[in-house]
């Protein structure tokens, strides 16, 4: 899962990223209003951590821009301003949660998980799709109750496809999801084919139906 940390306190942003990386999140940074605006307009994120006070502008304007673009990224406001008015305004505009600084990193991680679970997986900890079962907290996958060993990238891909089930997902969107903004610098998407091939092989060999379809010329679709 991919997280954008919009925070001008670099030490805090890095400590958040270090902690979330241990929980298998891919983290990107924006330290100014303009940088944040450019990233939210171009890229998709599973969750955005949004500071209100930013060099060059106000975080609430970022939230309003997300709403005007009809973006579906989850948003948690993180702010030193523990103001009821700010909290109400942010939630009314479209934020999913509000966390006042200082906060404990485990609490932040739990709130991120809650936002992603609620938005992408119908607020459940265990996804059951016919013979396929995914434990989001345990980060484990079973087919017909047999544990399937997936790599971090394979599990991330599986969750990404399921979160976008019955939608065609382009190769460039998958590359961005797996590699973040670094995807723009890649010459090709060969690494995507390798991960998808391995994921499909492990699932089908365990007896899972072929839900992941190749849409030639467009990308892939998880059909249910």
Automatic annotation (TrEMBL):
DNA-binding region location: 124-224
Pfam families per UniProt: Response_reg, Trans_reg_C
Gene3D superfamilies: 3.40.50.2300, 6.10.250.690, Winged helix-like DNA-binding domain superfamily/Winged helix DNA-binding domain
Source organism (scientific name): Pedobacter hiemivivus
Stated name of the protein: Response regulator transcription factor
Signal peptide stretch: none
The keyword Nucleotide-binding is annotated on this UniProt entry: no
OmpR/PhoB-type domain: residues covered: 124-224
Residues modified as 4-aspartylphosphate: 51
Start and end residues of each Response regulatory domain: 2-116
GO biological process, one term: regulation of DNA-templated transcription
């Amino acid at each position: 899962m991919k997280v954008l940390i919009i925070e001008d306190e670099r030490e805090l942003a890095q400590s958040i990223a270090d902690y979330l990386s241990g929980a298998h999140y891919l983290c990107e940074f924006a330290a100014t209003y303009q940088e944040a605006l450019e990233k939210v307009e171009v890229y998709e994120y599973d969750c955005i951590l949004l500071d209100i006070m930013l060099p060059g502008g106000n975080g609430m304007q970022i939230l309003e821009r997300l709403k005007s673009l009809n973006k579906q990224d989850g948003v948690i406001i993180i702010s030193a301003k523990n103001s009821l008015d700010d909290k109400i305004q942010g939630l009314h505009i479209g934020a999913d949660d509000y966390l006042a600084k200082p906060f404990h990193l485990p609490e932040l991680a739990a709130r991120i998980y809650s936002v992603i679970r609620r938005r992408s997986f119908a607020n459940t900890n265990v996804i059951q799709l016919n013979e396929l079962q995914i434990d989001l907290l345990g980060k484990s996958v079973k087919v017909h109750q047999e544990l399937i060993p997936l790599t971090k990238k394979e599990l991330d891909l599986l969750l990404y496809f399921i979160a976008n089930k019955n939608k065609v997902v382009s190769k460039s969107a998958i590359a961005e999801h797996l590699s973040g903004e670094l995807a723009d610098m890649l010459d090709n998407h060969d690494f995507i084919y390798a991960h998808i091939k391995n994921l499909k092989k492990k699932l089908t060999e365990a007896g899972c139906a072929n839900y992941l379809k190749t849409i030639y010329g467009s990308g892939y679709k998880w059909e249910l």
